[in-house]
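Troubleshooting log. The previous structure file for this entry was overwritten by mistake, so regenerating from the original sequence record. Sequence copied from the archived sheet and checked twice against the printout by T.R.
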Amino acid sequence: MTSLWLARAGRANTDPYPAGEHVDTIIVGAGITGLTTALLLARAGMRVAVLEARQIGAAATGNTSAKLSLLQGDVLGSIRHHTNDRVLQAYVDGNLAGRRWLLDYLEERSVAVQRRDAWTFATTSDGAALLDAELAASRVAGLAVERDDQTELPFPIEGALRLRDQAQFDPMDVLLALADDVRAAGGLVVEGERVVGVDAGKPATVSTASGPMTADAVILATGAPILERGLYFAKTDVRRSYVVALRVPGDVAAIPRGMYLSIERPTHSLRTAPDPDGELLLVGGNGHPTGRVESERSYVDALAQWGIDTFPGAVETYRWSAQDYRSGNLIPFVGWFPRGRGRVYVATGYNKWGMTNGVAAALSLTADLTGGKLDWAEVLHHRRTHPADLAAGVGRNAEVAATMTKVWVAAETTAPDIAEEMSPPAEGTGHVGHAGRHPVAVSTIDGRTCALSAVCTHLGGIVHWNDADLSWDCPLHGSRFAPDGEVLEGPATESLRKA
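Regenerated output below.
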């Protein structure tokens, strides 16, 4: 599956990897956080290098629904419940700062932006109660959210919230503009160079297959941090969700023009996207924990069917998925990396709201590295973790441990013996078997059958075949691998080994 944004994006030329060189800051990951941080630091006079394992926008940013909004479902009410009004205000202030910076930048670069009202709606009485909590939290934080039940939706609702003058855009337009400007400011953007290790010595050293580089500071802007210290893989939930692009027949005016999101789960979101043949309608949602469902394809099929049922005659044109990370109290982790000696920094846990949170993280990281001070960032740096969140983390990791036991037992006892199988898996399919007591992952894609170790190279989980993305996904911490074993995303840095 390929996103609408990636399918029509132009290609940028990569810079050569400067093995052995020293720069002021190395940024790992060329998404919204990495490239915005790189531009801010380059404009501040630093020499920066962005290292991207695949291509610009290959992970979350190139697969987002790209809503730039402070109305974020039930997020503000949940943050208020988990923390306090001071932290809530700091979160909103950071998101407002990120939104303001990005809109100013897009205007400066003449990148197309569609101004839209954002809506959160409920279809049940329980959902309506959540709207009340979200409205109260929004007003505490000073947002001009209003109750307005007169939506454009073609189905009955129990209520809705509205925040005017938010925005949407093509995220790849943003990333490619940022990459151009990083280079124009003297920075490097290197694609196809996977960082496999970071040493926090003085200077800090990053390791890749092409050799080391050194820097005064290293920023991990990779969705899930690739270093195990800090245990961020254990402090965040990892989930996949989906988007389907639909062409709706008839008058374009019949398509809802606002950006809509249901407050109940499974979520359904709506936004439009400009297209040469008229507006497309993007339907998103149906999220689930990575690697822990029987069939990912059934989730995206159900989402597409919901869209077609809701807008009769609609025809699917694209479908894609994204992976997101969420902290226990919904506040992103941004700042110094534990045991990073003040030279390694991290940004993760955006909970699907990376367009505002990603730029807010870039502003915060830039202040950290240049000696600036942002009051809202200081509050978020020093937020407390409440006992309930600690308990949720314990429960989450107990579930991870139980999942690990379950999948290992299944791999050793119920999975087929690879040596006894008479034929490879059918085209487009994969499954886990075993050779002796070793789990083996076998798939057939484009006529090529690959047999790999089914043991994730991060912390030893047994991978699961994702029948929507045609990938091997680890149910423990969300590492994902291509059919040939190459790392796609997550905390893993090494490919699955050949069986």
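The longest strand covers residues 315-327. Archived copy saved in two places this time.
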